[in-house]
Amino acid sequence: MFLDQYCTELDNNQFSFTRQQSSDFAKNVANDFNPLHDVDTKKFCVPGDLLFAKILSSEGLYPDMRVSFSGMVSDGVALSIADAGNGEKIICDQNDKEYLRIEHSGEQTNDADLIAKLVRAYVAFSGENFPHVLVPLMKEKNVMINVARPLVIYETMSVHLDTIDLKDPQIEASQSHLEVNGKRGNVTLGFIFRDAGKVVGEGKKTMVLANLREYDQSVIDSMVNEYNRRRIEHVA
Hints:
The protein is an alpha+beta fold. Helices cover 30% and strands 34% of the residues. A hairpin with a 5-residue loop joins strand 1 and strand 2 (15-16). It is globular, with a radius of gyration of 18 Å.
């Protein structure tokens, strides 16, 4: 499974993520250059998309899934996948602290090749949310995150597939919007699934933007330029 290089298997069906594994996944698979996933950052956290990839790889793909994120995972934390009842699964640590919960229904597939293709397609789409989607949304509402201490919280992700008999699923962005309430913003990012050119499903991702302030184009430009510089530097 392609995820093996980004996850460390432990005893008793536990697993963990190192900083290097998390950073490599963010940059090489998700095209995500958020400094929170840098190996040497103080406020490091494992990418939420890596947690999603892990539980999907372990538990299988379902036509209807809803994932809720409830905590940031540090490197080296021993995690496990537990049954939460009602067919739900959670990723939690040894103190039963929950980080991710997945609800699912419908026919299941454990086709490793299909799951890897779908995970790669989804996390690549997810990694492009900044700056391509979030910046235009913030500009439209005349707000922006605090670039000195950006706080963007991955909240939920839901998927509906018309079928799981897929060959090479691809993801495209659809309608997205930002609702602002004071210094807090709620973002909904829509997307559709295509297979052989045909629309075969849809989904949405929700995030919370905290500590909003008035939009400043010059500050945003500097942030985007730095983000792109990091991306180009990594490729080079």
